[in-house]
Amino acid sequence: MTLLLRRSSVLGLAAGLCLGLAGAPAFAQSTLAPVVPKAVTEGSELKDAPSLPSRLAATSLLLDVTTAGERLVAVGEWGHIVYSDDQGASWTQATVPVDVTLTSIAFADAKNGWAVGHDAVILHSADAGQTWTVQSKQPELEQPLFSVYFSDAQNGFAVGAYSLYMTTADGGATWTQKKIGDSDFHMNGIFKAKSGELLIAGEAGHVFRSKDKGENWEILQTPYSGSFWNGLGLEDGSVLVFGMRGNIWHSADGGTTWNQVANKSTSSIQSGRILSDGRVVLIGLEGTVQISKDGGKTFVYAPRDDRAAMAALIQTKDGVIHVFGEEGAKTQTLTE
Question: Which of 62, 103, 182, 247 matches a 20 to 30 Å C-alpha distance to 326?
Answer without folding.
Answer: 247
